[in-house]
Write a structure and sequence with these properties.
The complex is a heterodimer of chains A (553) and B (359).
Chain A (H helix, E strand, L loop, with lengths): L1 H38 L12 H8 L1 H34 L5 H13 L4 H10 L4 H8 L10 H24 L4 H9 L4 H12 L1 H17 L2 H6 L6 H10 L6 H27 L19 H27 L2 E4 L2 E6 L2 H9 L1 H30 L4 H11 L6 H11 L1 E2 L2 E2 L4 H26 L2 H9 L4 H30 L4 H4 L7 H10 L3 H26 L7
Antiparallel strand pairs in A: 1-2, 3-4
Chain B lengths: L4 E10 L2 E11 L4 E5 L6 H9 L6 E6 L2 E2 L10 E4 L11 H11 L7 H11 L15 H13 L5 E5 L7 H18 L2 E6 L2 H7 L2 E6 L2 E6 L1 H6 L4 H6 L4 E10 L4 E6 L2 E7 L7 E6 L5 E3 L3 E10 L3 E8 L4 E7 L12 E5 L6 E4 L9
Parallel strand pairs in B: 3-8, 3-9, 6-7, 7-8
Antiparallel strand pairs in B: 1-2, 1-4, 4-5, 9-10, 11-12, 11-14, 12-13, 14-20, 15-19, 16-17, 16-19, 17-18
The chains are: A mainly alpha (553), B alpha+beta (359).
């Protein structure tokens, strides 16, 4: 019976997809991470299963202090980002700030910048031989040092407050106006209203933003590496322990990785628990009114937003400008030239082509698997669905460097010898960036009434054809915008690339990093500018495609 | 062209819960048939089984004597109108209507004429190029109908198609649907929880509860001769009075007492137990000089009629309606009245078995 076959084929198709997807996740996520966990229980001395790595970590202050520092930096960054992000979100959603759209785009841009460009630019400006440091030195003013804890926190804050801003402003423009009107009607002053109604209602968004900030600053490797100097945090220690040629300890690095993943997971669980009872879903019939102020008042509400946004975007401007300055080795000379760009074309064109090639291949995989996984999660619920949901989101709590180490541990011997190949970088990108696409695709799928698919089947189109003609088509904007986000983060990816690259497979961000370490600031700036401009263009495309319906965070 | 549909002992289970419990129905070709019941009664589940979206656990569904249990949904040749219309959001109105035609491999050059015809039929000729997001609820409804009928299916299914419209539009679309169905002569199965809508639109109605059919009949049969207290209460309003069946008179009629007072004597089709329920609709009561005695507790003026809540001497409260045109004044709260009804209009049920006893 041919008719029966269609349905069966459709079911079989999804069973096959399910098996392939779960298999791939098992191979490229579960297996590497478990290898890492297992390795953390062995010691290089080879005395069987041992807790000595963990014991060393918690008993030796040299190691344990890094965890304390990491947590302290992450907590402080969370606090400062909230302190900046929430007021900015409030001003932007409630007042007619000048040039709102541009400011919004600039804020997203500073979030999407390569993770260490901030650190690097602040060094260029305020570092030991920075432009501004020198400028002030001429008039005898000593600028406070940019290195160490304070510097890390400053750079992190400027890079990550946009998370808070984006989450909170989205929530704030979703509160129904009547809620605040009711409070006003009950005699509550505007400040009291903000404190007792608005902020509590947007709490879940504040919490989600705060957790992202916490986890990102806990996991980030580039910034503390460049600007931390003596202030060593956990990801830097992991990198050193794993990569250093002398005295490094891969087993200890694995144990450190497990510790950091545990920290992220705990934080994520706390957030879920805090938010669970406070999820006020509301359909905003009437979004809050934007207060139109004029004259000096408008200047006053716009000023803070401008100050913060400009400081946040400053690193990228600095990078762009310095890329055109004449250099001689590490020294910047007077006047402009295209020397740095000529240099990278001559010496560093490989990382550029690598970056776009790897990111492109990764994106193809991400798009295909993103659509299929989103469909499995949303439409084919049940046990595999929720398992997939959990597994796909797991990379959120794994810092890039940890994922890098896991893949190295897992694939360093035949038959799966992938170390040093472009493939291992691509795998890392797919695993790490897939959640963006899965999330935005499933968001579209959630909004799509299953009746739409049934209507198509009812009109005589087989389930399989319906999936491609209707479902995939309707998911497309979600998939594409998610894929662009994945693309942006892929080309900017440093923390896993730095673990996985070899001379031949370096990417732009790795090259920027190594150039900065070699004090070759001009080429670093030129490379970083290429990244920034690509990011900006991609972001522009994203905004065009998503039309505001997909959030970047 | 139009199918007849026979549903034979059809069952649908979800775990321990039986959503559709051995339903038997026979729907004639060209009939407008409604599945009516409260939410959760299994009407939508049954409709989706006919459409092929829910599998059939046991029993058979056949179109024109051929069993379609194993035919996949997209091969069943059924038109369907969904509760929220399910208009494809990425296609414009014409493309939506053409979708099913293309799937049927209708020659490309014939499609535009068919689409235009469907647009004309639904009186939405100007909307062809519109996007679904630019349509009002009523317009989407018309597009959904056009899309479903343009393929000239043997059967049309409608799942609460009017529930998302406002009251006025609902009444308007009701007659649009009815006229369309008459004109095309297409067998239609319509699902609704709105009894007024069901009465207005259907040739026949199946009242469902807990996955079972409670009664099948024309709107008039269902309203005037409800087979059990559930149907009596669900269709229209009914007062259920606890009563005693007293004795059978020489004429063959049975005397019925409400609260020790003589209520009426009427012929019963079946002998029941002593305890019974008598169901009287508010408009079936009238005030007379004798009868059941009670006092008016609340009177509500509703324009064309006045509704009274009356407490009978034995404590039971009943509702009755009096037409304003028949009555000059609203009776005052507290006034003492005697209620009567015509025995041939009311229904008597066994209190235990809930079976209909009256003819």
């Amino acid at each position: 019976m041919l008719k029966k076959l269609d349905i069966k084929r459709f079911g079989e198709f999804w069973n096959l997809v399910r098996i392939i997807v779960l298999g791939a996740i098992a191979l490229f996520l579960v297996y590497p991470f478990s290898s890492l966990v297992i390795q953390s229980f062995f010691s290089p001395k080879g005395t069987g299963i041992t807790l000595s790595n963990y014991r060393d970590f918690f008993s030796l202050p040299y190691y344990s202090s890094t965890l304390r520092r990491s947590l302290s930096v992450a907590t402080t960054t969370m606090g400062t980002s909230l302190a900046i992000g929430i007021p900015i979100a409030y001003l932007m959603t409630r007042y007619n700030v000048f040039g709102k759209k541009t400011l919004h785009a600039m804020t997203i841009m500073s979030l999407m910048s390569p993770p260490f460009i901030g650190a690097y630019s602040w060094i260029v400006l305020f570092g030991r031989s920075g432009f501004i440091t020198k400028l002030f030195a001429k008039v005898g003013v000593v600028v406070p040092t940019i290195y160490g804890r304070g510097g890390i926190i400053m750079v992190f804050t400027l890079m990550m407050f946009p998370y808070i801003y984006l989450y909170v402003s989205a929530a704030m423009s979703n509160i129904d106006r009547s809620l605040e009107e009711a409070a006003e009607n009950l005699g509550s002053s505007s400040l009291r209203r903000l404190w007792t109604i608005t902020l509590p209602v947007v709490f879940p968004s504040i919490a989600s933003g705060a957790v992202i900030v916490f986890m990102t600053s806990l996991a980030d490797f580039g910034t503390p590496m460049l600007i931390g100097e003596g202030y060593k945090v956990l990801p830097v220690l992991i990198y050193e322990e794993y990569m250093s040629e002398m005295g490094g300890n891969a087993n200890l690095a694995s144990a450190l990785s497990v510790v950091i993943v545990c920290c992220s997971s705990v934080i994520l669980m706390i957030q879920k628990w805090l938010v669970a009872k406070r999820n006020y879903t509301m359909t905003s019939m009437r979004p809050p009114q934007v207060v139109a102020v004029s004259g000096f008042k408008r200047f006053l509400v716009s000023l803070p937003v401008y100050v913060v946004t400009i400081i946040a975007i400053l690193p990228q401007i600095v990078v762009l400008i310095t890329s055109f300055i004449k250099t001689n080795g590490p020294v910047f000379l007077k006047g402009f030239s295209l020397n740095s760009y000529r240099n990278i074309l001559y010496r560093l064109s490989k990382p550029i082509s690598n970056t776009f090639l790897y990111a492109f291949v990764a994106i193809v995989f991400i798009i295909v698997s993103g659509i299929l996984i989103a469909y499995l999660i949303v439409r084919k619920k049940g046990r595999t669905g929720s398992l997939l949901d959990l597994l796909v989101m797991f990379p959120y709590v794994i810092p890039g460097s940890v994922l890098g180490i896991s893949l190295l541990v897992a694939f360093n011997k035949p038959p799966l010898l992938l170390t040093g190949t472009p493939l291992i970088l691509i795998i890392a990108y797919v695993v790490r960036k897939l959640p963006f696409t899965v999330r935005s695709s499933s968001a579209f799928l959630h909004q799509m009434d299953p009746c739409i698919e049934e209507a198509s089947i009812n009109l005589g189109v087989s389930p399989m054809k319906t999936f491609f003609k209707i479902t995939a088509r309707i998911m497309a904007p979600g998939v594409i915008s998610g894929a662009i986000l994945s693309w942006i983060t892929c080309i900017n990816e440093l923390s896993s690339s730095i673990m996985l690259y070899t001379g031949k497979t370096a990417t732009i961000s790795v090259a920027v990093y190594t150039e900065v370490v070699r004090n070759s600031f001009g080429t670093a700036a030129a490379l970083a500018s290429i990244l920034s401009v690509s990011t900006a263009l991609s972001l522009f495309l994203f905004m065009r495609v998503s039309k505001g319906s997909v959030s970047v965070v | 062209m139009s199918h007849s549909v026979v549903i034979n002992g059809v069952v649908k289970r979800y775990g321990d819960f039986t959503a559709v419990d051995k339903v038997d129905l026979s729907i004639k070709a060209g009939e407008f048939f409604t599945l009516l019941g409260p939410s959760g009664c299994g009407k939508t589940t049954l409709l989706r089984m006919i459409a092929g979206f829910n599998s059939i656990d046991s029993g058979e569904i056949s179109f024109d004597q051929s069993v379609i249990n194993q035919v996949p949904a997209h091969k069943r040749d059924i038109g369907m109108v969904f509760q929220n219309y399910a208009i494809f959001p990425h296609l414009d109105v014409s493309q939506n209507i053409a979708y099913g035609l293309k799937a049927r491999r209708i020659p490309k050059q014939e499609i535009p004429a068919l689409v235009t015809k469907a647009l004309e039929l639904m009186q939405i000729t100007t909307l062809g190029k519109r996007r679904p997001s630019e349509l009002s609820g009523g317009q989407q409804q018309r597009v959904a109908l056009a899309r479903a009928v343009v393929i000239e299916p043997g059967l049309l299914l409608m799942d609460e198609p009017l529930s998302n419209l406002d009251a006025k539009l609902r009444v308007q679309m009701r007659s649009v649907i009815k006229k369309l169905q008459r004109r095309l002569g297409i067998t239609t199965i319509y699902v609704t929880h709105d009894q007024e809508e069901a009465l207005a639109i259907s040739d026949r109605i199946a009242v469902m509860k807990d996955g079972r059919i409670m009664q099948i009949g024309t709107p008039k049969e269902i309203y005037s001769k409800p087979q059990n207290p559930f149907v009596a209460g669900f269709i229209g309003t009914s007062n259920f009075l606890g009563c005693e069946i007293l004795r059978t008179l020489a004429t063959g009629d049975t005397e019925v007492l409400v609260g020790k007072q003589f209520a009426c004597s009427l012929p019963l089709a079946k002998a029941g137990t002593h305890a019974a329920l008598i169901s009287v609709r508010p408009e079936q009561f009238f005030i007379a000089d004798t009868g059941l005695h009670g006092n008016i507790e609340l009177s509500t003026f509703l324009g064309d009629f006045i509704n009274y809540e009356i407490r009978l001497d034995d404590g039971q409260v009943v509702e009755m309606n009096e037409y304003t045109k028949d009555m000059g004044d609203v009776r005052e709260n507290g006034s003492s009245v005697y209620l009567q009804f015509l025995p041939q209009q009311v229904s008597v049920y066994d209190k235990e078995t809930r079976e209909r006893l009256s003819c």
